[in-house]
């Protein structure tokens, strides 16, 4: 049985650069650059394996939906604002049989809150510290609020198996651990800018409660 292609290692510099490109001058977010950054973050979850299966498959599905919407209609799905306004003006936000981009991106936005809080807490650990506690803390403060009880329970239990910080970074970064640790503060800074701006856009359009 032939093996699939080997998954390349996670690179925080790639996340930083794409999120930096996503920040447009008009207080908007470029959708392609946002999704390119998110695809790299998704790689982190893939490399971690089954411990993050509760979130990784859902994130991949959401990324693929938005990429497909962009491929079909690049003009209206260029930025977060153009996407929301197009879907609002065409009554697509309420359309039951349409997987709209605004709702899909909101799920990624919530996931990004978890990712950035987890990575921020990782940066404060020593190499020999276990990562399970900070992961559980980040999850409980973010995604857990949007998950049913069964998923929350399974996620918290899975996190008990997480390794030390040193082992985690080696698993997802390969030989480039120090380079990733060095770029982490800058990556977290630009990720916070993207998160806050996206949050503000959803505030403006009153879309945080999309079902």
TrEMBL record:
GO terms for molecular function: ceramide 1-phosphate binding; ceramide 1-phosphate transfer activity. It comes from the Eukaryota. One of its GO terms (cellular component) is membrane. InterPro entries: GLTP_sf (IPR036497), Glycolipid_transfer_prot_dom (IPR014830). Pfam families: GLTP (PF08718). GO terms for biological process: negative regulation of interleukin-1 beta production. Residues 29-173 form the Glycolipid transfer protein domain. PANTHER family: GLYCOLIPID TRANSFER PROTEIN DOMAIN-CONTAINING PROTEIN, GLYCOLIPID TRANSFER PROTEIN-RELATED. Belongs to the GLTP family. This is Ceramide-1-phosphate transfer protein.
């Amino acid at each position: 049985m032939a093996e699939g292609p080997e998954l390349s290692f996670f690179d925080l510099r790639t996340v930083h650069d794409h999120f930096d490109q996503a920040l447009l001058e008009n207080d908007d977010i470029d959708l392609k650059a946002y999704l390119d950054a998110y695809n790299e973050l998704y790689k982190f979850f893939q490399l971690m394996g089954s411990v993050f299966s509760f979130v990784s498959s859902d994130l991949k599905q959401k990324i693929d939906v938005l990429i497909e919407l962009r491929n079909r209609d690049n003009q209206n799905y260029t930025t977060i604002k153009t996407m929301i306004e197009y879907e609002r003006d065409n009554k697509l936000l309420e359309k039951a049989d349409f997987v709209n981009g605004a709702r899909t991106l909101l799920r990624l936005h919530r996931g990004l809150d978890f990712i950035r809080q987890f990575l921020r807490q990782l940066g404060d650990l020593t190499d020999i510290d276990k990562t399970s506690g900070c992961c559980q803390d980040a999850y409980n403060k973010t995604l857990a609020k949007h998950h049913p009880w069964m998923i929350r329970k399974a996620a918290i239990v899975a996190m008990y198996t997480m390794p030390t910080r040193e082992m985690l970074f080696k698993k997802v970064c390969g030989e480039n651990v120090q380079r990733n640790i060095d770029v982490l503060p800058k990556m977290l800074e630009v990720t916070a800018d993207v998160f806050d701006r996206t949050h503000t856009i959803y505030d403006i359009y009153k879309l945080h409660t999309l079902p």
